[in-house]
Amino acid sequence: MEIINNFELPSTSKEKWSKEAILEKYGIQISTLNKILANKESISKSATQYSGSRKAIRVGEHPALERGLYEWFVKVRAQNVPVTGIVLQQKALEFAQKCDIKDFQASPGWLGKFKSRFNIHNHKLVGESASTNPEHVVKGWEMVSNALKTYGADNCYNADETGLYFKMTPEYSLVASGEKTAGSKQSKERVTLLVCSNASGTKKIPLWMIGKFENPRGMPKEKPLVYKANKKAWMNSAFFEEFTKKLDGMVSCDTALILDNASVHGIASDLELKHLKIIFLPPNTTSMTQPMDAGIIQTIKLRYRKALVGKVWTLFFLAFFFF
């Protein structure tokens, strides 16, 4: 397609390459170049139909069937409906029956080639963004935008909770060729973190951590964060009320606090606050509208994991060289 696009440029264009330059760049013969130019319409059509990048465009024995199946696949996935290989095979047989193709078998081999031709891959469906209502998402964006305009970035805060498996090490590792690998059981010990900051990033509220034990082993007396405890290591209404009142006392002018609609956050709307104005995001939109979910919480976890791995390696080397 690069070659075809080059020849469609105006003759006066500085970006246009000569035939000699193209032959040298791509290492092809003049006969190959002439064949590409002679069939540029069919090549352009195939490039649009088939996803991915490949030098040779392979077409199956029943291109009309596969083209119809791919169009059906794209429409179904646009509705976020899961499609498995078995579903594709069954649908292909239905298409074959409608097209009166009697010698077609939707075998596993055909399925693999079909997925390769159309650049279809298995992918785990994760996250919650597909379950959001687009109208609610737009409303959430408008609420955040209006809060920024009304209060300014310095006086617009967002707070959100997240779980942290603080003993869990990475599941992946570089290995040598031929090395036998074996995993280990991962720790599921968890704490809850409450992360809060203003939109400009100039005021980062110290993290709140909720664990299971009042005095956990290894926790320093002078804590760099606010530590609370309950049996499930979860945020509750009492803790969130305390947090909201403390934040209200830390600000000195009208300030917005943007929250999702978690049940424990409901207590904030019943409090008599001097400076804070509570703004709740629409339900089921936090994955796309919550500022803290736009990479801030993920960055905190990545930095913690990096520090954890560094600590593990330090202890390993100490044990290896001195014991």
The description of the largest β-sheet is:
6 strands, mixed
Overall pLDDT score: 80
Strand order in the largest sheet: 4-3-2-1-5-6
Tell me the overall shape.
extended
Structure described in brief:
By secondary structure, the chain is α/β, with parallel strands linked by helices. Helices cover 42% and strands 12% of the residues. The chain has 3 domains: 1-49, no CATH class; 60-126, Arc Repressor Mutant, subunit A (Orthogonal Bundle), CATH 1.10.10.60; 132-160 and 194-293, no CATH class.
Overview of the structural elements:
The protein has 323 residues and is α/β, with parallel strands linked by helices. The chain folds into three domains: 1-49, no CATH class; 60-126, Arc Repressor Mutant, subunit A (Orthogonal Bundle); 132-160 and 194-293, no CATH class. It is built from eleven helices and six strands. The radius of gyration is 29 Å and the shape is extended. The chain starts with a helix and ends with a helix. Residues 49-55 have low confidence and may be disordered.
